[in-house]
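Morning, I've got a small favour to ask if you have a moment. Here's the protein in full, and shout if anything looks odd to you:
***
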Amino acid sequence: MRSGNIEQFKHLSQFRDLKDFNNNIEQWMIDLKSKFTKSELIALKRLIRFSAKVVGVCNAKIATIVSATHEKDGMGISRSTFKRMVTKAKAFGLLTVYETVRKNGSQSSNLYVFNRYPVKEDVSFSQTIELPKEEKLNCPKTSNLLETNNQDVIDKRNDKKYSQYPQLDASFTTNRVPVEFRDFVKCFYDDYKTIEEFWMMYKSLCKAFC
């Protein structure tokens, strides 16, 4: 991607306005704040502030962002801390990062694009999961859920939109997933995205059949 003025990247913004951007960031932080260290959060918040001119998009140099944390946040960070934050944010789906080049072909600063908080899609489970017989209409057990949705999870893990991020193990699972459930699924799939998908399926099935 060719580097240039931030205005030329307006088409990459995923937000209606600054308020919409801030609302999405608040939702992300509910899930992810505990996953970042204190210094990584400083780096993330400073990147968010640099993403206000074109809402959710930033092409500032790392050195500029790092310098701002020393001048304005009272606790400066290092380049390596900023890069660790970006790696985590990409893995969680919070950020998409594009490399840019100058006209002469040399590498320029990265372009950081914040993603919207994912909206839980309504899924018609009656179309994908066989309904239990009337006399056994109980909450589905976790083991049955794993068997029923095994192929679906495999398909998702092979999908390009999942494979673009490095795999993170069960320790990255958000607090909304019970520890017991996480540890059980971990025996089969040590991947936080897969565990959280199973948890959402499990909750939806219980709501539908209980």
In short: Residues 125-209 form one domain. Residues 192-209 form the longest helix (18 residues). The chain has two domains: 6-114, 125-209.
